[in-house]
Amino acid sequence: MDTETDCIQRHPGLPEACGLTASEAAAIMAAGIGATGSHTASQAEEYDDAHNADLPDWKRRCIRLYGDCQIQAWTRKARCFTCFESCTGQHEWPFDKCRPKDGR
Fold it and tell me: Is the pTM of this model over 0.70?
């Protein structure tokens, strides 16, 4: 697990202690559960982000792509969370740093 996941587990219910919002912490934990569960890179599943309906579309996309990056072990020049942070700042995913292995 990465340091963000470790921090969330050390501070349950206090995502701000890790520099995260509740939605960001939920996305990270959901990705971690998926990565340790029955998901594989070959299984394409639709991510249900109905719990993020109040977020802007660009942020929902950043969260979904972060989860994909973690679960599918994308080709990366940076950590998935670094790409997520870039996405939340720029409102678009840095595919030059984190992208699917098949180049999509």
Answer: no
